[in-house]
Design brief:
Chain lengths: 246, 482
């Protein structure tokens, strides 16, 4: 293990959201710090891992990136069952995708593990006028409109945004979700999402272990996907040496 | 491109659907929920039932759309006036040069009119490079002779006035020569009539039917279209085989999205499902290759005459329809066909390689986690399109069950191939490995071997296929009274 003596825990994370909102692109940015236009649609689900280094511990995300098309929705429970965290993604340039995201949030609240940490993520910020000038100006939450009070739709020229920050943020607050606006293309806020999730996982739900293969983590005995048992911590997909920005 | 009088430009992909066809609380659309599998069967049967009625319609009514122009194909000379590209007609792929080829549209075969009318004309267009003992090694000469002999065997079968499909299947199982594949596939799928007298009229009728359907589907622009289906198709088309230049060209994208959309609206029980976009591409590549010289994967079909694009599109549409008819329950609500195949695969691997099955179970890898995609996309994400095309020669030779049953044995053979590696891996390593299997270097020989292995497993286990029950439960040999 390259990370030294810090305790390490596995966290199962599932991505949900309408087709082509950028779920796979967010994961690719997080795991490989890479972006590809026109990636083939995900079929079923893809599995990836990435570590996230917090000051006092290391979180290894075991990520299930699900397919977005409605026809595959019946597979989703298999992937969110026992997940400790979920990233529900919408495309902030496509109004209907937020409705779909709300549907997923409701389903997770109804069916997933109680205490699951959910982040609502509006992706494709690069297609809006906010994509420039904001880089690095925000730390954790992307609250460019703060509480959003009094902010009307700012339909500026060339701005493809259809969902205001205020609208999504107020929904996220109501439901107790983490909230971010991201661009998988530029990388804006992507690390921050995963870091915030890692920080939000209650330490009590994490099983700490001393090293690779030294014990089970995550879902415990009912974890139908298993996967945590004896997992080698040197993630195959891990190339991003920065870890999380924290 | 297909030319539709009423739709000068491509309908926009809807950015905000005017009606929300998917209720946010539901997991499927009302259409699919209502339609039963049997309804779906009769639906797809209708496509061909209509045919019989159409047969009474005199050909002379073919006046609109692309097909009208096929009748007067001899008049298509204006394309000769198009500027030629800087390069010659030969593509980078080292295709054969036809001695009589006149340069028209870049890459278009001079004899394309004849091919449009009857794919049987491809039999007279096979070029054999002259064998020269000074230039060619004895191994090369042997390979060239083997190729000539193989082509001649196919020609004997294909030239007959009524093609013996049993003979064709047994020949094609081992792979079809590129030049004969378009015709052979169309025969094997039952699209092209085995009786040569019926071919020209049948093709004209089927092509017109497709073009009319497409014209009608797009005639009212956005307003008349199923926005959910169209949106999904139009976002998937640019993501289809993005690594192959052919699929980056606008003409390819416009043709493929029309084929998929027309198929989807004619099959409401499934509609368009991601993965079907992959399945149309071998047809597109193979049928397009009949009309051009050089490597089809780097070809820009934008300069082809609309008549050729119409014909290729229509042939793709019908052959895709035939293929999907055999695996329709893969794509209807809850995808029962895939669920069944996944559990069949699990049962099969338990018998073929119990050690591997036990290991996967021990590290808690579920078959559905990796093989769902194998079924949904017919292993197209695991192999190059070229290799998939070779696999389909065999699948089509297996008759109706090739894509539904033989595919299962191919998947099993494919999985157990990596048994030694997989048994050393933990959950994460298994998942990572199975998601990106090392098949980049695979060629025809590797595929041929895989297919032979699949055939062997099928021979051993098909006769006890009762063990492969729909519910996935295993029945042991003893119980089968073997």
């Amino acid at each position: 293990m390259a990370e030294g003596p810090k305790p390490s825990s596995s966290v199962k994370l599932v991505l949900l959201g309408e087709a082509a909102v950028g779920k796979s692109s967010l994961v690719l940015r997080f795991v490989n710090d890479d972006f590809q236009e026109n990636r083939e649609p995900t079929i079923g689900a893809a599995f990836l891992t990435q570590k996230c280094s917090l000051p006092n511990r290391t979180i290894k995300f075991e990520i299930w990136d699900t397919a977005g098309q409605e026809r595959f929705a019946s597979l989703a429970p298999m992937y969110y069952r026992n997940a400790q965290s979920a990233l529900v993604v919408y495309d902030l340039t496509k109004a209907s995708s937020l409705a779909k995201a709300k549907h997923w949030v409701a389903e997770l609240q109804r069916q997933a593990s109680p205490g699951i940490v959910i982040a609502l993520v509006g992706n494709k910020l690069d297609l809006t006028n906010q994509s420039t000038g904001l880089e690095g100006s925000m730390g954790g939450l992307s609250l460019s409109n703060a509480a959003g009070d009094g902010d009307d739709d700012e339909e500026e020229e060339g701005d493809a945004r259809q969902i205001t920050t205020a609208e999504a943020k107020s929904y996220a607050d109501e439901e107790g979700l983490l909230f971010f606006e991201t661009s998988a293309k530029t990388g804006h806020n992507v690390q921050e999402v995963f870091t915030a999730i890692a920080n939000a996982i209650p330490e009590s739900t994490l099983k700490t272990r001393g090293g690779p293969g030294s014990g089970r983590a995550g879902g415990g005995a009912t974890d139908t996907f298993g996967g945590s048992g004896g997992v080698n911590l040197s993630a195959v997909g891990e190339t991003n040496k920065d870890g999380c920005a924290c | 491109m297909l030319n539709f009088e009423n739709t000068p430009s491509r309908p926009r992909s809807p950015t905000h659907p005017k009606h929300k066809s998917t209720p946010s609380g539901g997991s499927h659309s009302p259409t699919t929920a209502a339609a039963s599998y049997n309804a779906f069967m009769s639906q797809t049967d209708d496509d061909w039932g209509l045919d019989l009625n159409d047969a009474s319609v005199p050909k002379e009514t073919t006046v609109t759309g692309g097909l009208g122009s096929i009748a007067s194909m001899a008049g298509v000379t204006s394309i000769e006036g198009r500027p030629l590209g800087a390069k010659g007609s030969k593509g980078a792929g080292g295709g054969y040069e036809y001695p009589l080829a006149k340069k028209r549209t870049r890459g278009l075969k001079a004899q394309f009119e004849g091919l449009v009318r009857d794919p049987g004309n491809s039999l007279h267009m096979i070029y054999h490079p002259p064998i020269n003992t000074d230039v060619h090694s004895s191994a090369e000469i042997e390979a060239m002779n083997a190729r000539i002999s193989r082509i001649n065997k196919f020609k004997t079968v294909l030239q007959s006035s009524t093609v013996d499909l049993t003979k064709l299947r047994s020949l094609a199982w081992g792979g079809i020569p590129d030049e004969l594949r378009p015709m052979a596939w169309q025969l094997l799928l039952g699209y092209l009539p085995a009786n040569s007298d019926r071919r020209v009229a049948t093709l004209e009728r089927k092509r017109k039917e497709y073009l009319d359907s497409a014209k009608q589907a797009f005639s009212r622009g956005d307003a008349g279209m199923d926005q959910t289906i169209w949106h999904q198709i139009s976002i998937d088309i640019p993501r289809t085989n993005p690594h192959i230049p052919l699929y980056g060209h606008k003409t390819t994208q416009r043709c493929l999205e029309k084929i998929l959309y027309v198929w989807a609206i004619r099959h409401p029980a499934s509609g368009y499902v991601q993965g079907i976009n992959d399945l149309v591409t071998p047809f597109w590549q193979v049928f397009l290759s009949a009309y051009i010289e050089g490597d089809v994967e780097t070809f820009d079909p934008g300069s082809l005459p609309p008549e050729v694009l119409d014909v290729v599109s229509a042939d793709c549409f019908w052959c895709l329809t035939k293929l999907l008819d055999g695996i329709q329950d893969n794509y209807i609500h809850s995808q029962p066909g895939i669920q069944r195949q996944v559990s069949q695969l699990r049962d099969l691997v338990r018998r073929i390689d119990s050690g591997l099955a036990k290991h996967l179970n021990d590290v808690q890898v579920q078959f559905i986690q990796f093989s769902f995609r194998w079924m949904n996309c017919m292993l197209m994400r695991e192999f190059s399109v070229k290799n998939v095309i070779r696999m389909w020669d065999t699948y089509m030779s297996e008759g109706n069950s090739g894509f539904s049953e033989f595919h299962l044995y191919v998947c099993a053979a494919f999985l157990v191939k990596w048994s030694a590696e997989l048994k050393k891996m933990d959950f994460q390593e298994v998942m990572m490995f199975l998601q990106s299997l090392p098949t980049k270097e695979w060629g025809e020989k590797d595929i041929g071997l895989l297919l032979s292995e699949a055939f062997m497993w099928q021979s051993l286990y098909r006769n006890s296929s009762a063990h492969l029950r729909d519910d996935g439960t295993t029945v042991h040999n003893e119980e089968l009274n073997l």
